[in-house]
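#structure-requests
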Amino acid sequence: MANSSFYSALARSIAAGEPAVEPILTRASRTLGRDWRWLRPLTHRYLGIFGPEARPRRGEVVAFLVADAGLKAALQRHGSRVRIAEWLPEPARMMPVDAARKWKIPEIESVNALADWLHLSASELEWFADLKRLAARLGKEQVQGALGHYHYRILAKEGGNVRLIEAPKPRLKEIQRRILNGILENIPIHPAVHGFRKGHSIKTFAAPHVRQRVVVRMDLKDFFPSLRGGRIQAMFRMAGYPELVADLLGGLCTNGAPRSLWRKAGVALDVPRLSEAGSLYARSHLPQGAPSSPALANICAYRVDCRLAGLAESAGAVYTRYADDLAFSGGERFERSAEGFSIHVAAILIEEGFTVNHRKTRVMRQGVRQYVAGLVTNDRINVVREDFDRLKATLTNCVRFGAESQNREGREAFRSHLEGRVGFVEAMNPAKGARLRNILEKIRW
């Protein structure tokens, strides 16, 4: 009867190379010493589960083999004649899926090669990747010390929820930037994506939805923490990196926040909400604050972007996404199905591992203010009038009563804050921006 070594050897031969029937059969036959008739159906079942585009973990393949009824029957029928004739060597080469073959990313085929590429020692690489998630067990005092890799800040959100900002410390941040510049920026993302993408902005995100009969706006809940560590590691495996290299790359770009952070968190939340937040962020996820996270989020959302763009096209609409903001718009045909359309979008998002913040879903027809990501799109891209009026009043009061009188939140760089807000208005509406700039320049600092 087969033991764990048998399944491990067979899993290695099945998952080690090209995910296609004939290459798998060749490797499996070599491992078992002959071409058993039941290997071909087993191969088809394997590809049916994992697909030709998958790069499953060895453990996942072992679990598949152990549970496969056809393999169990074959082992019972042929008994000790089914044996391991040869342990195939672990392939030390890049094995990208077909879609990733043209990606211009560095070939890193071993742990030592990854350490060299990142200018780290092997022990430093292991420490920063933290695959055992030791940092998640740190006490609150240890987190900010040498043992922790991140600085944390808890922000209260509307509706009683929280957002955890996880800013990597300088050394890890440098490593993540190396991964971003050397690997992630060379992986294509969907054309509908406008957030965290060179040459794109909130303005290009909103532009396709100007002067449309109906605009549907939706929002993803907990976008970054919804992208788990396993999903990130799977992306690196699909890019072609060997399993351990992919795991380390994923570990460097993800984090599990210590539960100790939520004790005396300093935000007005009840115990159940704090407990829920602690559980959400304790699991390995993309940290909001890491330089590599936006690019990884866009890459990992490629499939859902494809599905939503296809759904929008079938309904006579256009689709764009800026981080966790989704926007759809169209003419008369789309207007007739706009209410039910959001239900189909939510179903796709759930299937892909995301959650919709239904409180923020809006169906906006002509005659009411249509806005996406804080920009009005009825006739042209414009800032929300109330926001403009508030900013104008703040600037005017700074001129009359001094800037400190308006810095109610105690911002250290209040001047830069106001200049940034005025710059945003200038980019969206130059005429309105010029009026605000004129007031800003009259402030005495």
